[in-house]
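Comment thread on ticket #2218

A.B. wrote:
> Attaching the input chain for the structure job we discussed in standup.
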Amino acid sequence: MRPDTPAENVDHNAEAARLERTADLYPEDAEHLLLQAAAHRELSGDRPTATALYDRLLSSSAPLDNPHLVRALKASNLWEYGHEAEARAIIEGVRVAAPRDPAPWVIIAEALESHDELEAAQDTFTAAAILLLTDVTEPPYATRALLFGRHRVRRMLGAVHDDWDALADTLHSSSVSLDELHDPKRVWSLGSDNPAELQAEISRLRAELGTYREALSRPFPVAVLHWPSPELSELVGAYPSLTDEYPSQDQHLATIESSLRELASSGTPNLGIVTGTVPSYEAFAASEGSSPADAALLPQYATTLAARGLAVAWPPQRGAACWCGTGQPYEACHGA
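C.D. wrote:
> Ran it. Output below, let me know if you need it in another format.
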């Protein structure tokens, strides 16, 4: 979740500097921390420094979890302070790379939209929807922003509803329909002298605020903890009492999938998986003043990893490798 607090309410430069220092101390978390720092730099108006942070990540020898996201954010930032040509080149590069994560698609499409490139924004949203949602029965939570953004742009273009727009309407849970929220004529009502029009606009703004608050209340996924086989062997070898929690690797993997399916069937959105390591878990236990043998720490550890931006969305996108690490497509492995 990128910060959005107005500059007058927080010292964004000081917060960015703190995050940059923390990234130096914890290089394994540098990607997550420096993206947050870059966002603070953007909010403070220091866009060149934000670009330098994106370049720092992209030039790092350490592999990035989501290099396409970093490039998309860099392009959006560059365009905002006059580097349109470079921004367009990066946007085209992200499109050609066709990432399986919806976030880079949303960022580049919204960058185009914010600069009145509505046709290009619609094409970008549509390309992402085709890539990520074709033959998908239940769109993952993270893809909703794609569908809502596409609906918004097409509404501004006056396009007739299609199947993707209908799906966006279905997923939208607010009391005010997407058609109303994305009505291009809404801006006119703000200058109206008609009390009824103003009251209707207030209702729409309240609905938007409710949707926004709901998104903020879930800044990271509800995540289930996954231990790769070597890590699980080391964990139960060092702390035998955890054998009750993890009788075997196969049962551990089956429990992860069944737990996530149960959460999904209960209506819980935004699900994910975090991968644990024994050194990281032991450090977490020490920070909590507890023993790693305490099974009650495990869900807290999973939540902490998710809050650090380390969760992988579940279920994987169609055609993506299974979360368990076999390298097989999810549909042929645990998704079968």
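A.B. wrote:
> Thanks. Noting for the ticket: The chain is about 60% helix and 5% strand.
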